[in-house]
Amino acid sequence: MTIGLRYDGELAVLTIDRPAALNALNLDMLRTLSSHVDDIERSSARGVVVVGAGDRAFCAGADIAELQGRTAGQHLDGSVFGQAVLSKLAALSMPSVAVIRGAALGGGLELAMACTYRVALVGARVGLPEIKLGLIPGYGGTQRLPRLVGTARALDLITTGRMVGADEALEIGLIDRQVDGGDPVVVGKAYLAEVSEGRPAAVHLAREAVLAAARLDLDAGLRAEANLFSRATCTGDAREGIEAFLAKRPPQFMGR
Questions:
Q1: Which of 98, 163, 200, 237 supports an S-S bond with 115, CB 3.0-4.6 Å?
Q2: Which spans are transmembrane here (predicted)?
């Protein structure tokens, strides 16, 4: 097994399962991931948890041995394919969380950055060390990292190739939360349950609005926000939320 998919109640669980190679990604694994993401989109899952097998690495990056002997055209095709797979993960209609135990490096961090949220266990290390091989990130790292931490910090991390611990990653906004420990799947389930407590339909719309900020100018983003706000007001959850507020009782959201 290289990347496994199972369903745990309303959640899909993706496991990068190649611990002998620190869960490094090869081309076959990317193809499998692409197929799994398609399956998840067609499913009734309400969230996705992404974890790595073993306790040493979430994912140590791309399989470097695969890079040898390729032509420039093959490298281009590989980069474009990897970007497309991770963009497909990022575009899922439900939220996803990468739970990082151990190292998330290179393509592994790029995979985590394609998720909606990132949670790191104490002791985790993250970075984009491609520069140390005379390379640059090729699966979206140069584009997603600045959107998370800003241009200056992204340049620092990418051009030095240094790894940062969970404390610094949290401080600069590369991860959303640090937890003391525990089973990564359980940690991911708890996090998604918290961010979508009661399953309000507005969670999906809020995510769509915030992600639009990364690709739209301010005027277009404001128009997108207004349209999404209007859609939110038409949901049953919005009616229930307003009625519950006025009645001074807890809302009973149904997720629609």
A1: 98
A2: none
